[in-house]
Design brief:
Chain lengths: 596, 162
């Protein structure tokens, strides 16, 4: 009898830091110590706590080990598993209290989370359908096929208040209803797994950690709208997610959960993968359909909407990965349960990829209505390195930067819009005092420029002009006239672009201009970058009074621009310095100044 | 564009990909994925064969290849270096890494070193934001990379040459 489960994270983050080697080591030790009868090692999806990966969790006692190396495997087996003593040094240390936390139940990171879409991530082995089934998997599909009519299911989804998690927040039940009412011999269910927001990995993590949740929901959707074919549009750059999906689809077919006569009913449904090739605009549903048909992924004007005329002109229901991941729990637990969570107009939870200058970078899921402050300071553990919070960016390249004054606002679709940003797909980037708002706008614009499909002029040419002006600003070459032009042009692009990409591309500029106007003025009038990020406006010097001569800066300077003797003030040679900022990061004594 | 002569292996690969996908125009992206996976990149000659086999214009094939950033028309270096410029990596200093790689390798992003050993590119989020900033060399992922480490990473692969 297996009484202890060792869960090893198999998410992209942890895999990048040797999680696979950790697992192999654990497995081989268990074999050597003849523990195979009682202890089992399982690979799971992302635990969400990627910052401190690789993660290893022991069940049943919920012990949560962080930053585990292959060398640590021996202690986990010999100390914890055999002798029952937790390996203290691998336990998570609370950054505030400096205390080691013995299990995940007591970690602030998890306390305020509610996991619906991520219910199985970090719990089941994504490559083993039996584990999914053991956690109520395919029960929702079974129930739907045996006791509900398509309209009844649609009604449940409508009443639950679920809205699309791909960005726009369109009511999911309503979308299904529209597609179901269109008469056609062939319809399609499409799962949008393009996830182009740079710095976001929610959808990918769901697919890597719990692929069956999406497969089951797509089948339910197919039953509701009258489609027998599902397509998952996913980037070829996500090999892990693709691999796990392929395994899961194959297993589902074997179990008769995909294919003909599903669960003994005369319902047929199967799923195929369609590969993207790295184009952000392909996340837009009409572009996505073009791409699935083998063409350039250019958007077309709506209407007609995909619900009427989609893939090969057939009615097509497009939903986001996370939207699908919410379906089965709603079917099983009921619309009322789901709609009791969240705010008046935004029901349920939202998954965020929390990243940037924050202690706990990772994947989180919170009830709608949670405040940004709770997310950043309680779950996220606050700002890295004791720096000051400056801004939080949501909505990716279409979103905006919010300030301190928005921190106590409840997170939902409407509030974020009112505050000048948007929900988007769930990227949440935290920035501190060292981040320049003009530079971050430029960063997003660069992204938009790269990704603009070029079909319409405002987006293709206009964004280029915006970028040029921002670039001038970061170099101290812009005038106040340029600033005026920047804002004017931003509005024009918003109003005249064809698709959502262009219509939202100036948002990062407009929101940072609204909230950090003085920084724009600083770059234009005084040629100063207050955050000290714009290289061309800075020079680095050492404050001789503060410098203790620890030599850290000297040792780390990549070009040898620093000289000085131990325990004596150091000096930066401006003619050699390439303004890389490494010394500034390395000095623990605040002796390095960067000034405009 | 320079014309190169395709090896018979390359020609076979391309023809096989086209036939596996039943010469269907809507499978063009899958065909391109297969060819790039096997050949490393998609030179003009490959696109010409595909166009011929699928009975579509070369311009159309080129239009698709050039649209998607994943497809490359130039051969990559033996050790392709990709720096993540996703937002999470950007705010944790990825730009400095780009500068440093450019400086060390004396090439720009999108170029390959003269000896064909390294090529440099940027990508957007590899899904390991917790370890930002991220650099990938081939399939190997380096997390929390500092500008100082850049040199060590490069020399790791220079050594493996000899
Ligand atoms: C430029 C652009 C990019 C988009 N990228 C994505 C994406 O990566 N993933 C996604 O699910 N939706 C994306 N969308 C939204 C889709 O067009 C569509 O609204 C969504 O997939 C519908 O699913 P939902 O109702 O479940 O949210 C994007 C929209 C635009 C305008
Ligand atoms: S707004 Fe930009 S991405 Fe959208 S259709 Fe126009 S050019 Fe293409
Ligand atoms: S900024 Fe960079 S180059 Fe200049 S002194 Fe500091 S470490 Fe050296
Ligand atoms: S790291 Fe700071 S304290 Fe140490 S030598 Fe450099 S400037 Fe002085
Ligand atoms: S990838 Fe392991 S915790 Fe996220
Ligand atoms: S932004 Fe670089 S890994 Fe996500």
């Amino acid at each position: 009898m297996i009484h202890t489960h060792i869960l090893v994270c198999g998410g992209t983050g942890c895999r990048a830091s040797q999680a696979k080697e950790v697992q192999e080591e654990l497995v081989s030790l268990i074999r050597d110590k003849h523990l195979s009868q009682t202890v089992q090692v399982t690979t799971t999806g992302c635990f969400g706590f990627c910052e401190k990966g690789p993660i290893v969790k022991i069940i049943p006692d919920q012990t949560f080990y962080t930053q585990v190396t292959p060398e640590d495997a021996r202690d986990i087996i010999e100390e914890h598993i055999i002798k029952g003593r937790k390996v203290e040094r691998l336990l998570y240390e609370d950054p505030k209290t400096k205390k080691r936390i013995s299990d995940s139940v007591h970690m602030n990171f998890y306390k305020k989370q509610l996991r619906i879409a991520l219910r199985n991530c970090g719990i089941v082995d994504p490559e083993n359908i039996d584990e999914y089934i053991a956690r109520d998997g395919y029960q929702a599909l079974g129930r739907v096929l045996s006791i509900y009519s398509p309209d009844e299911v649609i009604d449940i989804i409508k009443k639950s208040g679920l809205r699309g998690r791909g960005g726009a927040g369109f009511p999911t039940g309503k979308k299904w209803e529209i597609t179901s009412q269109v008469e056609a011999t062939q319809k399609y269910v499409v799962c949008n797994a393009d996830e182009g927001d740079p710095g976001a990995f929610m959808d990918r993590s769901i697919l890597e950690g719990d692929p069956h949740a999406v497969i089951e929901a797509m089948a339910i959707c197919g039953y509701c709208i009258g489609a027998n074919k599902g397509l998952i549009y996913i980037r070829a750059e996500y090999p892990l997610a693709i691999g796990r999906l392929l395994v899961a689809i194959e297993q589902a077919r074997k179990y008769g959960l995909l294919g003909r006569g599903i669960l003994g009913n005369d319902f047929e449904f199967d799923i195929e993968l369609k590969y993207g090739a790295g184009a952000f605009v392909c996340g837009e549903e009409t572009a996505l359909i073009n791409s699935m048909e083998g063409r350039r992924g250019e958007p077309v004007i709506k209407p007609p909407f995909p619900a009427e005329k989609g893939y090969f002109d057939c009615p097509t229901n497009v939903n986001n990965v996370e939207t699908f991941a919410n379906i089965c729990p709603i079917v099983l637990k009921g619309a009322e349960w789901f709609s009791s969570i969240g705010t008046e107009k935004s029901k349920g939870t939202k998954v965020f990829a929390l990243a940037g200058k924050i202690n706990n970078v990772g994947l989180i899921e919170v009830p709608m209505g949670t405040t940004l402050r709770e997310v950043i300071f309680d779950i996220g553990g606050g700002i890295k390195g004791g720096k000051k919070f400056k801004s939080v960016q949501t909505g990716g390249p279409s979103g905006g930067c919010l300030t301190e004054s928005s921190l106590d606002m409840p997170i939902d679709y409407e509030t974020l819009l009112e505050e000048g940003s948007m929900m988007g797909s769930g990227g949440m980037i935290v920035m501190d005092e060292d981040d320049c708002m003009v530079a971050i706008s430029k960063f997003y614009l660069e992204f938009t420029l790269d990704e603009s499909c070029g079909k319409c002029a405002p987006c293709r040419i206009g964004n280029k002009r915006l970028w040029e002006i921002l670039n001038k600003m970061t170099k101290g070459e812009a005038t106040e006239k340029d600033l005026e032009k920047l804002i004017d042009l931003s509005h024009t692009i918003k109003d005249t672009s064809l698709c959502g990409l262009g219509q939202t591309s100036p948002n990062p500029i407009l929101s940072t201009f609204k909230n950090f106007k003085h920084e724009y003025l600083g770059h234009v009038r005084d040629k100063q970058c207050e955050a000290g990020q714009c290289k061309d406006l800075l020079h680095y010097t050492i404050d001789a009074k503060m410098c203790v001569g620890c030599t850290a800066c000297l040792r780390n300077c990549p070009v040898g621009a620093i000289s000085g003797e131990k325990k004596k003030p150091h000096l930066i040679h401006q003619d050699i310095c390439i303004k890389c900022g490494i010394c500034y990061e390395k000095c623990k004594f605040n002796a390095i100044l960067h000034q405009s | 564009m320079k014309t190169i002569k395709l090896s018979s292996f390359a020609i076979e690969t391309v023809e096989e990909a086209c036939s596996d996908f039943q010469y269907r125009e809507d499978e063009l992206i899958n065909i391109l994925h297969r060819c790039q996976h096997k050949l490393g990149y998609l030179p003009a000659e490959v696109q010409e064969i595909i166009a011929q086999k699928l009975q579509m214009s070369v311009a159309k094939v080129y239009g698709v290849v050039s649209f998607y950033s994943f497809f490359s028309m130039i051969p990559q270096g033996k050790h392709p270096i990709s720096i993540c410029m996703g937002t999470a990596c950007y705010v944790r200093g990825a730009e400095k890494l780009v500068d440093e790689f450019k400086r060390q390798l004396r090439i720009d992003v999108g170029e390959t070193t003269q000896d064909g050993n390294f090529s440099l590119s940027c990508l957007r989020c590899v899904g390991a934001c917790g370890l930002a900033p991220i650099v990938m060399v081939g399939d190997k992922v380096y997390g929390r990379v500092s500008a100082k480490q850049v040199k060590d990473i490069i020399s790791e692969y220079q050594k493996s040459m000899v």
